[in-house]
Specification:
4 copies of one chain form a homotetramer. The first copy, chain A, has helices at residues 2-26, 33-40, 44-50, 54-78, 84-101, 103-109, 119-140, 150-170, 177-190. The first copy, chain A, is mainly alpha-helical. The first copy, chain A, has 2 domains: 1-51, Arc Repressor Mutant, subunit A, CATH 1.10.10; 60-190, Tetracycline Repressor, domain 2. In chain A, helix 4 (54-78) packs parallel to helix 7 (119-140). The longest helix of chain A has 25 residues, at 2-26. The first copy, chain A, is elongated, with a radius of gyration of 19 Å. At the A-B interface, helix 8 and helix 9 of A face helix 8 and helix 9 of B. The structure holds a DNA duplex (21 and 21 nucleotides).
Chain lengths: 195, 195, 195, 195
Amino acid sequence: MNARERSKIETRRRLMEAGIALFASRGISDTRSTALAEAAGVAVGTLYLHFKDKEGLARAILMEGLEALLAELGTVACDAALDVGEAVRRQTDIMIRFAQERPGLCRTLFDPEAVRWQISTEIMDRVVAIQERRFFDQAAAGLLDAAVSPRVAARAVVGMLLFSLNWWIIHPDEADAETLAATLNRLRLSGVYAR
Amino acid sequence: MNARERSKIETRRRLMEAGIALFASRGISDTRSTALAEAAGVAVGTLYLHFKDKEGLARAILMEGLEALLAELGTVACDAALDVGEAVRRQTDIMIRFAQERPGLCRTLFDPEAVRWQISTEIMDRVVAIQERRFFDQAAAGLLDAAVSPRVAARAVVGMLLFSLNWWIIHPDEADAETLAATLNRLRLSGVYAR
Amino acid sequence: MNARERSKIETRRRLMEAGIALFASRGISDTRSTALAEAAGVAVGTLYLHFKDKEGLARAILMEGLEALLAELGTVACDAALDVGEAVRRQTDIMIRFAQERPGLCRTLFDPEAVRWQISTEIMDRVVAIQERRFFDQAAAGLLDAAVSPRVAARAVVGMLLFSLNWWIIHPDEADAETLAATLNRLRLSGVYAR
Amino acid sequence: MNARERSKIETRRRLMEAGIALFASRGISDTRSTALAEAAGVAVGTLYLHFKDKEGLARAILMEGLEALLAELGTVACDAALDVGEAVRRQTDIMIRFAQERPGLCRTLFDPEAVRWQISTEIMDRVVAIQERRFFDQAAAGLLDAAVSPRVAARAVVGMLLFSLNWWIIHPDEADAETLAATLNRLRLSGVYAR
DNA sequence: GATGAATGAGGATTCATTCAT
DNA sequence: GATGAATGAATCCTCATTCAT
């Protein structure tokens, strides 16, 4: 049944879109499974046909979002020709663009609430691990300041990015994209103080 | 009756300590009101005699913790003689010491879960506002880099600190206090890269 | 699914019957939601699937009962050919028969406790309003004594009927239906005293 | 200790006044014992020093009110010289005056909610019993219509009076005292219809 | 595959009453 | 006699999940 398969995929897609929208506006735990089904235009039972449980839907959304984000970020890592400053700038640009294009997804992806859902511990750890690996490589290449711990720095940089972006998605009018990028880059590259 | 009043204060204190311990280990929403009462050695009703509801206890704990932290941080702000680098280093030291001395409190205070509890929006906003004011003053004094937005930078720095400290409290063995301090300071003062 | 719909309606019916029986014997506030569910042979949650809350069930029962009673009483109002005495007698007969046929429902419907449930303010007001309208019409037709206020008389007559019937349902052996009817009619039509 | 005794009586009086006011405005079950104590300016424990429990306070208030009302009504019964019409008129006047002078007390005394409190079953029964005895006497004297059951008529008359007065206390502007009295008297003495 | 009525364990909160001071 | 902090049984309602249709 090709039509049936298409319909199944379509149903799953609608559930995920409903999840992205509702999780973004109410948070995961405050989103009722009936509300998800209603928003997706299906019966509650259908949710459990496509996902193990509500957290399964959240996990699918977040993982898919994470993969998409990491795929984009991966393009930077591959380009060995870039110097450190350029790589940082590219990374920031990618994250800001991602936030602009998929704000609903990002609100859930960067949402600190998700910490309690064990999913995002995985997500955080993956994101941090990537940053950590990069810092380790840079340290090996002598690019990193000697006093800096790659592990700590990775946490700090990720925290800085997620916290700032999460705020910016909710309050997009508080800063324009260029200022946001410039500030985050400057902070990472040479601190905020004039020299 | 003075004895009665003392006993009431003592009961409240025990409830708050039970809250600090349980909220730290299970999070606010996963801590049952009965567990709080049991841990404090009182009946459930007593919790509601001292606080409006479970969130009221959380709010009291967080607010008291916040005040304590801000009071310590305030000593830095007052010392106008400090140069920027010294002020940053002092601030970091204070936060790390606070985290070491009151790890349970900090786990709840810096815990992103609290975001969903509306309490910590207040807390975050207060912390960010303080950092923001400091940056504005420094900008006025020409200390800040021109490209940097005080508002964005305040969010970024607070996110960096809270995210890192929250991680460090949970995994204290991943880094020693000096490395943590050195990395956070270096990042804020001149970025992580060698120059 | 038609079978499913039928089952849903059947479940609702059983909840309402459980409500009629339990509310009649214990009153609304002394009837536990679990008792209602148990009596209806369903889980507690099912009660809240069909009604907003316990009061919602009570409201549904009372409103349905009221509609049934008013429908029967309406037949009298329509028969314009009846003289005053005959109309009163018919009305009394209808109410007594209704009380005999659905004693459980009437215990709740006429139960003064319901006053506190805000529901029966509506019920009382509707019943009184009907009687009031009738009295106003009769006053306009010169049938009413000049000293009589239709508004007050309506309250008095309704109070007389409800209070008497509520008592009679609980103590059916204290008077037979004919005596009850005769006394209530005589009181309304020409007072209780011989002339 | 004469001063102590006086103080005790005074405390009891304040509790009863608090009860009259709060029971009238919120009903018995919706009045918290702490609210009673607060309104009386004493501690909760004091309530239980003067009354067995909350219902005990309600009982005391209602019984005292009932005795006062019956005492006034008793003056009519004693005056054997009165003819039936005059006795009815006097009784109505007394009840209306009582309602005007002590509206708070009457709201609780005539409040149908009290039915569920077992207290008012006693009260109702006493009031009805008095009316019943009067009707039996009148029946023996040949004053009552032959078709009328004294027992039923007593219920009907009491229901009529209580229901009407309870309404009038809450909505005093819907009718003036004279119209109220005239209507109630006319209904009892010769029905509401013109002849 | 889709449905949606039914489930029931679970948890927050209330409030009349007590009793040590 | 008065106090008021402490009690804890009692009850309402929620909502993720299931499974017969």
